[in-house]
Amino acid sequence: MMTGFWTSMRRDLVLATRHKSEWLTALFFFVMVTNLLPLGVGPEVSLLRKIAPGVLWIGALLSTLLGLQRLFSSDHGDGTLEQMALSPVPLAWLVAGKMVTHWLVCGLPVVLMAPLLGIQFDLPTRSLGILVLSLLLGTPILSAVGALGAALTLGLRGGGALLSLLILPLYIPALIFGAGAVEADLAGISPQGHLSLLGALLVLSVFFSPWVTSLALRIALE
Amino acid sequence: MSNSVINWFKYASPATFYPLAGRLVPWFSGLAVLLIAWGLWIGLFVAPTDAQQSEGYRIIFVHVPASWLSMFIYCVMAFWSALGLAFNTRLSGMLTAALAPTGALFAFLSLWTGALWGKPMWGAWWVWDARLTSQLILFFLYLGFIALQSAIDDPRRADRAGALLALVGVVNIPIIYFSVQWWNTLHQGASVSLTKAPSMAHIMLEGMLIMALGFWSYAIAVVLTRVRCIILERELTSEWVKRNAVD
Fold first, then answer.
1. Shortest alpha-carbon distance between residue B144 and chain A (Å)
2. Domain contains B137
């Protein structure tokens, strides 16, 4: 089972490194969206600091959506996904490998880039740490929940827009607690409660999502 | 002994459910008209004017039952989804598909009447109150479900994918609700408390309950009618539809 997980993960990682545009697009999208906002609302530092947690989190949320559409579609197109479903290795483990890769490719760069963008929004150093921590806990949730949406919309007309319609409402708790942790820290309150809840959401979604996603994939493959 | 066993699955077949639904629809439609007329009469003429909110409060006779139903219908959808996935019954998926538009309608009605009520009471069409926000998200969940179902051509896949989404949604609803509530209490500032006067006049409660029952009957009648259409669409080639195609 674990070999299935590692093989699936390694394969997707190799594919991602060969198509650099995949993860670079997500990363640059994140940078672009967060940098457009000051242009839209004006360069007032106090206002920017206030909206920074929300802006950075929404940027992270939208940029993970970009990679999700491709999570299963190419494997679905060339029939690899069907072979995966037929293989003796539980599909959930293969799906888990894909999710982890998606996080490594679309989530982790965002987490690493976030402090740099946080500086642009004049966040204090301690809040930058909290921001990274909240994104580190939160972006895997986005990958895990998003994979379910990707499986449900696999091969459908207008998959991308549909995917965001299905998934964004389910992202709301992660957004609230993730951005809330940074805001709490900015306001001088301990962000621990938010981070704990984010951790609970992480455990829940990472535990259940591969299983539910594999069910959705089997429905899509029927 | 075997005679006393109830056949739970008798009406799980579209062929037997279709005529049953057809017999039930007129009853529930009639009931809906009577109850809503009665409830509106109580709400608009009998119930006294509220001391604090004057006549504007009367919108709760539509608002509260609509909100109840919008939440309840999502739970019913999740129930039929679970049943459909567990027993692989075709009718469950059809019922879920038939329930979704009515649920979305009530969610929208609840938001809209809420806005109409909020303008004179709070001076704003919309406030980011926890209940309003989670109701809005519920509306989004309905839209997502409808969009997913309508994007899938194969009805079997549409049913099963929709069922999975409805179940995931119903698990998420409490999480979303509490997260929004905590978010709201953290952001407490300009927001206005939604809590109404502690005690409600007996007649007001009565009117609201009658309206709720009327909305229920309306929902049942509409859903059964819609499920009949869905059954006909999907079973168009089957033998029993052809036999009864005349009427």
1. 5
2. yes
Enumerate the residues of chain B whose CB falls inside 8 A of the CB of residue A165: 140, 143-144, 147
Band of the pLDDT at B208, cuts 50, 70, 90? confident
* Interface predicted TM-score (ipTM): 0.85
Per-residue pLDDT at B149 exceeds 70: yes
DSSP code of residue B236? T
Domain assignment present for residue B34? The answer is no
Would you say residue B38 lies in a domain?
no
Do the Cβ atoms of B151 and A212 come within 8 Å?
no
Residue contact A170–B172, C-beta within 8 A: yes
Q: What residues in chain A have per-residue pLDDT under 70?
A: none
Closest CA in chain B for residue A214: B164
CB–CB contact B144 A166 (8 Å): yes
B31 within some domain? no
pTM, full prediction: 0.86
Average pLDDT estimate for B147-159? 89
Domain range for B68: 62-192+199-235
